[in-house]
Design brief:
globular; single chain; Translation Initiation Factor IF3; four-stranded mixed sheet; alpha+beta
Length: 271
């Protein structure tokens, strides 16, 4: 796939509203509560932003008895997610959004080939009601965030803003234990130090890479960090650690509390 947006995507974006006062419809995956709180925070949803990437994962050689990162797989998983994210962000740019809220990254294995994975990024593009330029990412494009509508409201209310979704990936091979070592621990309570060391190191690599992305985005910190673990159908003793969160910065000025409704009041509408 080239960087050009598919024709059907362009047609879909033409039918979206560009602001609260324009014609057209908006689309979003917000719940009712999220929709209300995002609007109370001064933002209007424009439309769903979608990015997709079908990726062939290459062959990775490894040592049966050695703890080691599998570089080929780590790079594949990271690059595929990055492609999906960049295409989602391109849709947000095309619709004139200031940012994307509630981004979800998913992976599914395609049945026709065990080496193919589809990476999907989806979120809701939003625009600030007053066109505030301070809500953009450090490169001037739309910000990205995996925060829910409620967390997005809370973040802004506390005087911070989302800058960029940041992530780090590490696919790691956990060494097999020898037969003698396995026999020696049968029936005993004992730490398997080689396994502990491998899992610990793999998580640290993923978190460190996420932290590096936050520094590159000129962020002050990362909120909502989540660490996923998965094998994605690989062979035994191979696991991926994936760290993801939203990098944040202080607002130029805190939003006046009287301009934002109490979230409990909003939530009570649907009680």
């Amino acid at each position: 796939m080239t960087d050009e947006m598919p024709a059907h995507a362009r047609d879909r974006l033409k039918g979206l509203r560009s602001s609260a006062h324009s014609t057209g419809v908006f689309t979003s995956d917000f719940s009712v509560n999220e929709f209300l709180l995002v609007r109370k925070a001064g933002f209007e949803p424009i439309g769903l932003c979608v990015g997709s990437c079908v990726y062939h994962v290459g062959i990775q050689y490894r040592s049966w008895s050695k703890n080691q990162e599998l570089d080929v797989l780590s790079k594949a998983m990271y690059h595929a997610r990055e492609l999906a994210m960049s295409r989602m962000r391109a849709e947000a740019t095309a619709m004139g959004a200031d940012g994307i809220v509630g981004v979800k990254l998913t992976i599914k294995r395609l049945e026709w080939d065990e080496h193919l994975l589809e990476f999907i990024a989806i979120g809701t593009g939003v625009v600030h009601g007053e066109g505030h330029p301070g809500f953009r990412a450090h490169d001037g494009g739309p910000f990205t965030s995996d925060l829910s509508g409620q967390d997005f409201w809370s973040l802004l209310h506390s005087g911070y803003r989302p800058v960029e979704m940041v992530m780090g990936s590490c696919v790691y091979h956990v060494a097999h234990r020898g037969i003698l070592a396995g026999l020696g621990s049968i029936g005993q309570n004992v730490e398997l130090e080689n396994y502990t060391s491998a899992m610990y190191e793999a998580r640290e690599i993923a978190i460190d890479r996420m932290q590096y992305e936050a520094e590159a985005a000129h962020a002050e910190g990362v909120v909502g960090v989540d660490i996923h673990e998965g094998s994605h159908g690989w062979q035994t003793h191979v696991i991926e650690f994936f760290a993801i969160g939203t990098a944040v910065l202080p607002l130029d000025q805190e939003i006046a509390p009287e301009k934002i409704a109490d979230p409990m009041m909003v939530l009570s509408v649907n009680d």
